[in-house]
Amino acid sequence: MTGRIALVAALCAAALAGCSANPPTPGPAAPALPAATGAERLAGDCPETVAVQESWEPEAEHGVLYQLVGPGHTIDAERKRVSGPLVIDGRDTGVRIEIRAGGAAIGFTAVPAQMYLDRSLTLGAVHTDLAIGTSANQPVTAVVAPLNKSPQMLMWDPATHPDWRTFADIGASGAKVLTSKANNSSALLVAEGLIKPDQVDTGYTGAPTRFVADPTIAQDGYATMEPYIYQHEIPSWNKPIRYQLHADAGYSIYPEALSVRTGELDRLSGCLTKLVPIIQRAQRDYLRDPARANRLIVETVAKYDDGWSYSAGVAGFAANAMRELGIVADDRSGPLGGIDPARMQATIDTFAPILTRSGASVRPGLTAADLATARFLDPSITLN
């Protein structure tokens, strides 16, 4: 997600140490799969390998991509990549998919920058606010949004603050809000007057130590992770937390929307016409039965062994949370994976001034049509 600053120091150290002693690990022997035909046949229209740059380490939010990985996959622990035949409904589309980890694996480079550095990438997972902030020099266009709403949140201890229900309650209390420097969602709360500038503490490292020691604070987190981890995997806490989603207070971004370099939109149009509906279907399939993809995610994290940990319990919790909280949902424009132009323009109107003030490279006169297109979406594909 936006940076996932958690475990930065550990991941940097792991990245420097390298994993050169670990050769790529093949998965189980691949059974013969029937070949896809018609609109499902990507060979000849898409690159031989559809390479996708993720923004962070493997996690359930990326489940749609792991859903597409067929039997006979390979886990490359050195380069932090998973590859295999790109499969939909048990049929081989004739091309491969390669999922590349973000974060430490790419030196914490922002996804748009990585897309322009490495032209072998077909797609990148780009948050709308990041796309706005790089629009002048590294323009990208979203073609499908597997996640409809950000899972970012502020969390607190309900025993210490039984009266807190919203961000406004946190703001009125004057309590410290522990966040990271590059967190645009917290910047929005300040801009909207929901919390005060002097409440913000940008010293969050991702470690639970500060929150456990001082439960008077509010802290950044993700509704797909921390509620489970704090209750079940942090022995010094082991109790519920409470939270509010930033999306409830105007953080209207499409998180990790799958995007292409804007200048290559037409060149890739033949591929995207077939691929985008397949991605829409894969997201629906993942939410209906996430078990296989989650196993691959957990296996991949274990093989990478780079400081990021991710249990089967977290993966299962995240898949349920994405459905229950509407993090994965049909867009208000209609389809699963849709990108509503009015919402996109409102997001630009909100964040362009904030990002410009921070020194980001925002294209003057930026519009929704510059950042996203619905031309490849199948409007008939919905979650239910």
Could you describe the 3D structure shown?
Residues 1-21 form the signal peptide. The protein is an alpha/beta fold and 384 residues long. It has two domains: 8-149 and 253-371, D-Maltodextrin-Binding Protein, domain 2, CATH 3.40.190; 152-249, Periplasmic binding protein-like II (D-Maltodextrin-Binding Protein, domain 2, 3-Layer(aba) Sandwich). It has 13 helices and 13 strands. It has helices at residues 8-17, 63-67, 111-117, 128-133, 167-173, 184-191, 209-213, 226-232, 269-288, 291-304, 312-324, 341-357, 368-371, and strands at 25-26, 49-53, 74-76, 81-88, 91-100, 123-126, 140-144, 152-156, 177-178, 200-201, 218-222, 242-245, 257-261. The strands form two sheets. An eight-stranded mixed β-sheet has the order 1-3-4-5-2-6-13-7, sandwiched between helices. Strands 10-9-11-8-12 form a five-stranded mixed β-sheet, with no helix packed on it. A hairpin with a 2-residue loop joins β4 (81-88) and β5 (91-100). The longest helix has 20 residues, at 269-288. The chain starts with 7 loop residues before the first helix and ends in a 13-residue tail after the last helix. Residues 1-20 have low confidence and may be disordered.
Kindly state the number of beta strands: 13
Average pLDDT over all residues: 93
Compute the gyration radius: what is it? 20 Å
Strand order of the largest sheet: 1-3-4-5-2-6-13-7
Number of separate helices:
13
Work out the strand percent. 15-25%
The CATH homologous superfamily of the largest domain corresponds to Periplasmic binding protein-like II
How far is the first residue's CA from the last residue's CA?
A: 26 Å
* Morphology: globular
The CATH topology annotation of the largest domain reads as: D-Maltodextrin-Binding Protein, domain 2
Keywords: Signal
Protein name: Nitrate ABC transporter substrate-binding protein
Signal peptide: 1-21
